[in-house]
Amino acid sequence: MTEATINQKNIYQIDINKGETFINAQKMQADVHKENAYLQHVLSNNASFKVAIHKIDKENKEVVLTINGKKVSVTLRSQTEMLLASLGLNKMLVTKLDAIKAPMPGLIQTILVTEGQTVQKGEPLLILEAMKMENVIKAPANVTIGKILVAAKNTVEKGAVMISFE
Question: Do 79 and 6 reside in the same domain of the chain?
Fold first, then answer.
């Protein structure tokens, strides 16, 4: 079973059993015609829907769609995630990030952040040169920079902690 939350308010239970789909325990029948990778035409209960897929975020389990011109955000939770949440253990799913390590040996070219700075996921932290290529090391999540343990023009070994997070 999967739980789908629509626009952060409407919650539906989806179950697929022996090829049949049930939404909130009611059997759903639909004819889906895939026009291309991002556009589908769905016929269900004598209604027609044009569904365009805009974004699929696998990490956050979110899909952004337009259904008949209306933008919709769908967030999915697995049965395991629902069980952990009901037991109050869903906090255990969050991984604590405490540092960024060198993915390979190399030379620190530039440090782009300062201690105490808050950065967003994907924001560049530093540039590491390895095998004559510049590699931009980015923030793995929204974090606050704790200690910067490397300096520009210094070399690092693979696995060396370069920046710690608060």
Answer: yes
